Input
Amino acid sequence: MYIIDGIAYAGEPAETIKVTDVKIIDRLCLMLTFSTGEKRIFDAQPLLRYPVYTSLQDAEIFNAVRIDGSTISWADGTIDIAPETLYEQSAPYECQAWA
Output
């Protein structure tokens, strides 16, 4: 059992996941490296349906993505996404070695 902000939880606390690296791989598509060592592909296109993310359609804004604490952000930190959301809504990156 553990306690956070006065609330008791059963089990052990989950490891906090962090984004440790970000690379733009295509328009609205990022390769993220997480604190687990995993590389995952995140497609930002579905975010555009939410007003807070519509400015990411501008390539100059999208391409200014940066690591901000444990996650990524744009526009001087005014636009961000929780690292847990990035992880859950991304796909594993699997590089195929050339034979």
